[in-house]
Amino acid sequence: MLTRRESEHESGQVLLPFSYQATGDFSLTLSVIVPVYNEAATIREVLKRIVQAPFRKEILVVDDGSTDGTVEILQDADRLKAALAKVLPAAAFDLKIFFHPRNQGKGAAIRTAVGAATGDVVLIQDADLEYDPAEYPKLLQPIQEDKADVVYGSRFLGSPHRVLFFWHALGNKLLTALSNMFTDLNLTDMETGCKVFRTEVLQGLRLQSDRFGFEPEVTAKIARRGVRIYEVPISYAGRTYAEGKKIVWRDGVAALWAILRYNFIDNTEDSAEKTPRR
Predict the structure, then answer these.
(1) How far is CA 11 from the centre of its chain?
(2) pTM value?
């Protein structure tokens, strides 16, 4: 593990390590990746909820150049440790915090964390509380039962969700349909921010997208790998723009380009061997 000085010198990132040991015997170690950009209002609460998930876990938080006070919360390690300890974690956990010196995008933040993940399974958790960590058990179940290598949490399979933007929902469904046409998958929610991977699957991909193009890119690449993919219904507590929602119409255009790019232009095989679908 890099020291603070080494990490600043070699990569421009800062890593603050912290480990907490609790009682419990869990056979699976979960790496929870939390990309963060300007989420001072929610970062403490999302970390508390992650800690309460009943899995041994490492939490990899990547601040992507926040300017709203998020950095100060994450750098105040003592206060953060004390708050998490009061939650009475359900299992042992390890906390690793990385800082990007400038905003690079969600995809770049995920790449930083993927390279540091050491658990058996990687789960991506947005820091805005739109996705509920209490649903980790059902997201992990297909992998624990050896039915899946990748699990997508779908907002469109019937679980409770906040009623918000019609055009956003329509755009998500259109992008998913287009992606499905090229990948030959039958996903209902390609753009979901709640995705779970066996670690070797995700680390075997050559990911390139810096921003929200991560979702169509990773979908195209796991489809070519032929891994087993499941969807499970999840709840969704979407935010308004006044509450901090960041995705705009330009991100939809970028996602469309990413679907075309990673299915037709940059569609070379990744480092790991292709795995037949089972």
Answers:
(1) 22
(2) 0.83
